[in-house]
Amino acid sequence: MQVIVFLYIIAYYMALFIMSGQTEVIVGSFFSLGGIFLSILLLWRASIRIKTNERVFWKWMTAGAIFYFIAEMIYRIYEWALQTEPPFPGWADVFYILYSLACIAALVYIVMQQQKTVVIWQSLWDALIVTCVIMAYSWIYIVQPITYLEEEVLYISILVTYPLLDLVMLFLLLFLFFATNVRRIWLWNIVGVGCFVFTDTIYFVQMMQFHYESNSWLDPLWILSVLMIGLSGYRAKDGDLLFQKREHLSVIKVIFPYVCFLILMCVPFISPDDRIVIACLVFAAGLIFIRQFMTLQENRQLLQRLQILNDDLEQKVATRTRELTYVNEQLAYAANHDFLTGLFNRRAFVTKLEREIIRAKNEQRCLAVIFIDIDRFKHINDYFGHHIGDELIVHIGKVLKEKARPTDIVARQGGDEFTIIFTPLHHIDELRRFVNDIVSISQQPIAVQHLDMRVSLSVGVAVYPYDGETGDTLMKHADMAMYRAKEQGKNQYQFFNGEMDRVILQKTTIETALHEAIEKKQFTLFYQPQFDVQTGELIGMEALIRWIHPKLGMISPSVFIPIAEETGQIIAIGEWVMEEACRQVKAWNEQIGRSFRMSVNISPKQFLKENFVEHIHSVLQQTNLSPNKLDLEITEGVAVFNEQYTIQKLQQLKQLGVCISIDDFGTGYSSLSYLRKFPIDRLKIAKPFIDGITEEKEDVAVVKAIIVLAKNLKLRVIAEGVETLQQLHILRSLQCDEIQGYVLGKPVSAHLFSKTYIENQLLTD
Predict the structure, then answer these.
(1) Last residue in a domain, options 209, 231, 250
(2) Domain co-membership, 528 together with 429
(3) Pair type for strands 451-453 and 446-448
(4) Largest Cα–Cα distance in the chain?
């Protein structure tokens, strides 16, 4: 845009020198009005684009440019219509002066808006020094010659107004220049106003000598001045006019007033006897002196303030040191204490336990580590909220601290677990009384806010040196004993013994071996036949997993299945069982041309897995097994885990075409509602009911009720665990549909099942 402006002015000059007469007037008017109009557009765009308070500045500048356009239009109308210059002074001069006043108003607005941000006095002295220089030279070359004119007062007043207003604008711009960072916007304005000062001064001289002619070389300079001010708004953005003092002043700003004063010192050599000139010089010298004096005062104040700040800093450092010492003490306390109960935390407990073991070893005495856990604490948090749970933890911590002896050490391990170092331990009866006292907490209600709660504790005890000689071993064994107390029914204590270690070791060994069993496929499937009760015909089989370990031999499912459930390995095992069972039943059905149904137990974790249905679909496609030949057995616990989720997943399975059975019906969360809502095909009566039908009438009634209920709901019924002929006859009399049990067939390997049942079926056919 800057290049366009300068090319525009060059074109203006070329047109003036080439054209003449009326053509010169038209071309001059075109360039003059066009340049002003372009400046209006640039300033107006800035007033629209800016969203902050700075918009007011650009609106004033736009208004000033519009006034200048009106003045120029009046001037050109006289030239076009009357072919003469307008009278001086006239309406054109009114709008020219309004232009200057609008610009001054814009600058004053910025100064007033930012007056609290800048150091006004120093900038004011600098601007006044520069103004003295301008006034001295203006007096010599402009004002003094006016005194010899014999024109009217109005003529002279209007003539003088132009350079004076320009000087006011220049003074304000210089003030902003010295008071703020050097901004491109201020530089363009200073150059533009400086051009106005020069042009209006030449115009003033020519008007005094009556030599001014319109469309002369001065006209493009006025337009150039307006365009330079317009360029300041071309790239204006929000925040450009904010006063942000630099930490280090520029060299130009520091030396510029002194350079101006040196220029002013040349004036006496031009007019040595002029009192006004001498007064300007003296006034400028006084300003320099005042400026230096105030700078020294400011430096002295800064030194005093620096001293005060140093004193304050020393006080703050001392205060901060005390605070840091207190904080370090607090951190040391927090590092070793539980934030909720104020008891020792696990870290401090381990440290103190090691020290107590060393002391007990040196004194040849015993100590005990007691591990305490709140039973069913998760339910308390879930039902009453964590804030109630926290208050309960705090209360139990206080009770344990009160029951402990002064020599004992009570700590919170985390969550709902506490530990106690019972030291010294002189007699085992003393320890038994203490842990009995802890367990007895459940006998009295605990008041937590508005609730009276009864909680029970499971306690495990390990004794040094019999149950371990290191802190880690004692804590591990006390933890094992505590979990043994939970397994035994909670609300009791257990002392550690070697059997616990063996059980834990066995569990860990099996958990580790399960990984290898899955990788090396050490599992095999046994199959137990299922028969139609009325006809005695083989209708299907149930796949039952067996683990034959190369060293441990046959491992019962009751041993490894719970561990696999707990560790999540049951998912991989279940997927293998599903694939192997489907492949086997497909082979048998093709072998004899029959349609046996394969029943497969589904683990709760397996059923709740996100892609369970997709996996079943994939297995059916891989084995090419008809979906209705696969029966998935789920437990009642899975069925009622999440009713909506279960219904959705069962419906997806039914869409595949597989059969669904409820396993161990009657032993879990039996509910008539889910029998109606869930898309199931069979009920499998649990073995405990079958065991009692030959001796207990109640069990017969229950089995009969289940069968009647199932038939009314159009469900088939299968009884599992049938071991005697008497049980079989009773079930047949109750019109049970299917049967599975030792009385007709035990679980056997695939080879033996094929030989015993499949080949026999071929011979029968």
Answers:
(1) 250
(2) no
(3) antiparallel
(4) 148
The length of the chain in residues reads 765
Same domain, 540 and 404: no
C-alpha 452/C-alpha 434 separation (Å) is 25
* Domain's final residue, options 464, 496, 528: 496
**Cα gap 521→684, rounded to integer Å:** 30
Q: pLDDT for 487-514, tens place per residue?
A: 888 888 899 886 666 666 667 778 788 8
Task: Supply the range of the domain harboring residue 685.
Answer: 507-755
Tell me which amino acid residue 588 is: W
Q: Which structure tokens are listed for 504?
A: 């834990």
Residue 142 lies in a domain: no
Instruction: Count CB atoms within 10 A of the CB of residue 459.
Output: 25
Which residues, 6 or more positions from 250, have their beta carbon under 8 angstroms from its beta carbon?
182
Strand ranges (E), 377-522: 409-414, 417-425, 446-448, 451-453, 457-464, 492-495
Q: Do 512 and 490 have their domain in common?
A: no
Question: Same domain, yes or no, for 515 and 647?
Answer: yes
Helices (H), 78-117: 91-113
pLDDT tens digit string along 64-118? Answer: 888 888 887 887 777 776 666 666 677 877 887 888 788 878 777 776 766 554 4
- Give me the pLDDT at residue 349, please: 92
**592-628 tens-digit pLDDT:** 888 899 999 998 888 888 888 999 999 999 999 999 9
Residues 84 and 161 in one domain: yes
Could you tell me if 573 and 664 are in contact, meaning their C-beta atoms sit under 8 angstroms apart? no
Q: Are residues 1 and 59 in the same domain?
A: yes
For the record, the structure tokens of 654 come out as 């039914």
Q: Is residue 621 part of a domain?
A: yes
Residue 764 has pLDDT above 70, yes or no: no
Please provide the DSSP assignment of 282-322 as one string: HHHHHHHHHHHHHHHHHHHHHHHHHHHHHHHHHHHHHHHHH
